[in-house]
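User: Please fill in residues for this 321-position structure.
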C-alpha cells in the first residue's frame, strides 16, 4: 500500500475514493473500503482519504485521542486491501474551503476521483456545508459517481453509556470510544469488527517479569492513543504473523516500577524469544480486573499466573462461541 501524508502535491487518475475520519476502521468504515476495493476490478485505484489531524479536534479545541494511531491505521488499511492511504493536511485553509472547491480541486483535479464513497452523515467544506445531497448533485457536472453507504446497526452485548444490553445502536467511533473508556472490550470489538489493537515497538523495562519466570513485552503507546482503563486484559500477541495467547496489563505497574507513562505489558504464553526493538501487535478482548499494587513480588507472581490461567480460559471459551 502507498501512504501519502502531509502534502497537497498529489496527482492521480482513475480512482475510487472513500472519505472520512476513519478513526477506528470499524464495520461502517469497512463497508466504504469494500466498496472502493470493488472498483479495482475495473482498473481503478482504491484510495482512502482522511486527514493528518482529526478535524473535530482542531475545530473544537479537543485533546487528541484516537482509537488507532496514524501508524496503526496505516497497517490495518493495508490489510484491508486499500491501494493508497492519504492523510491530507488539515489546515485553516482546508477548513475554510468551499465544498464545491474541495470537490473540484482536491477530489477531481488532484486525486482523479471517478467514484466517491462516503457515509450517510458525511459533511465537508467550510462550516460543514457540503453534504451527501451536494455530493450527488455535483456528480453529473463533475463526471463522477457518488455512493452513500448507510449506517450499520448492532445489538449491544453490554451496557455502554446510556445504552443497555440488547439495545440497538448505530456503530460509530464515538460509541466505540466510549466502550473502550469504560473497559467494555467485547462491545468495542463487536463494533470494530476486529479486536482493539495496540501496535508498537517493544522497549526495555525493569525485567522484573523475567526474574519470576514471566517475561513481558513492554509497549509505550503513542500519546495520541486512546487506552482502556488501567487493568489486566485477556489478550493475544501477534509476532511474525503468528498469534499467541497472552495477558496484558495496561497502566503504570505500581508494584515494581510506577511508570510515569502508561504502558502495555504483555506476558506471551508459549513464546520464548528476544523481541526487544521489534514491532508486535497486542489485541485486547476482555477486561479481567483493575490494576493493583501488591505487597511483594511473590504476591505479584502468584496473581500473574492466575491472570494467565484466566486469560487462557477466556480465549478458549471465545474460540468455542
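Assistant: Residues filled in for all 321 positions:
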Amino acid at each position: 500500500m502507498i501512504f501519502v501524508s502531509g502534502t497537497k502535491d498529489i496527482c492521480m487518475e482513475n480512482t475510487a475514493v472513500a472519505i472520512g475520519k476513519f478513526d477506528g476502521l470499524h464495520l461502517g468504515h469497512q463497508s466504504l473500503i469494500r466498496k472502493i476495493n470493488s472498483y479495482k476490478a475495473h482498473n481503478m485505484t482504491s484510495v482512502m482519504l482522511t486527514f493528518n489531524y482529526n478535524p473535530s479536534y482542531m475545530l473544537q479545541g479537543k485533546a487528541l485521542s484516537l482509537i488507532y494511531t496514524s501508524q496503526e491505521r496505516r497497517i490495518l488499511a493495508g490489510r484491508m486491501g486499500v491501494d493508497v492511504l492519504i492523510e491530507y493536511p488539515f489546515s485553516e485553509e482546508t477548513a475554510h474551503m468551499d465544498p464545491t472547491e474541495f470537490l473540484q480541486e482536491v477530489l477531481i483535479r488532484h486525486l482523479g476521483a471517478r467514484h466517491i464513497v462516503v457515509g450517510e452523515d458525511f459533511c465537508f467544506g467550510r462550516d460543514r456545508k457540503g453534504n451527501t445531497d451536494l455530493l450527488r448533485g455535483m456528480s453529473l457536472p463533475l463526471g463522477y459517481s457518488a455512493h452513500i453507504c448507510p449506517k450499520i446497526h448492532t445489538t449491544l452485548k453490554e451496557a455502554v453509556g446510556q445504552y443497555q444490553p440488547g439495545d440497538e445502536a448505530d456503530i460509530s467511533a464515538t460509541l466505540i470510544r466510549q466502550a473502550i473508556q469504560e473497559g467494555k472490550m467485547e462491545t468495542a470489538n463487536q463494533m470494530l469488527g476486529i479486536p482493539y489493537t495496540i501496535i508498537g515497538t517493544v522497549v526495555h523495562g525493569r525485567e522484573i517479569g523475567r526474574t519470576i519466570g514471566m517475561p513481558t513485552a513492554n509497549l509505550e503507546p503513542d500519546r495520541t492513543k486512546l487506552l482502556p482503563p488501567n487493568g489486566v486484559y485477556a489478550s493475544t500477541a501477534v509476532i511474525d504473523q503468528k498469534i499467541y495467547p497472552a495477558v496484558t496489563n495496561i497502566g503504570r505497574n505500581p508494584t515494581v516500577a510506577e511508570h510515569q507513562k502508561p504502558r502495555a505489558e504483555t506476558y506471551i504464553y508459549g513464546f520464548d524469544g528476544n523481541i526487544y526493538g521489534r514491532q508486535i501487535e497486542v489485541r485486547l478482548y476482555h477486561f479481567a480486573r483493575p490494576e493493583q499494587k501488591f505487597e511483594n513480588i511473590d504476591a505479584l507472581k502468584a496473581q500473574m499466573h492466575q491472570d494467565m490461567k484466566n486469560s487462557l480460559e477466556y480465549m478458549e471459551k471465545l474460540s468455542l462461541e
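For context: The first helix runs from residue 27 to 38.
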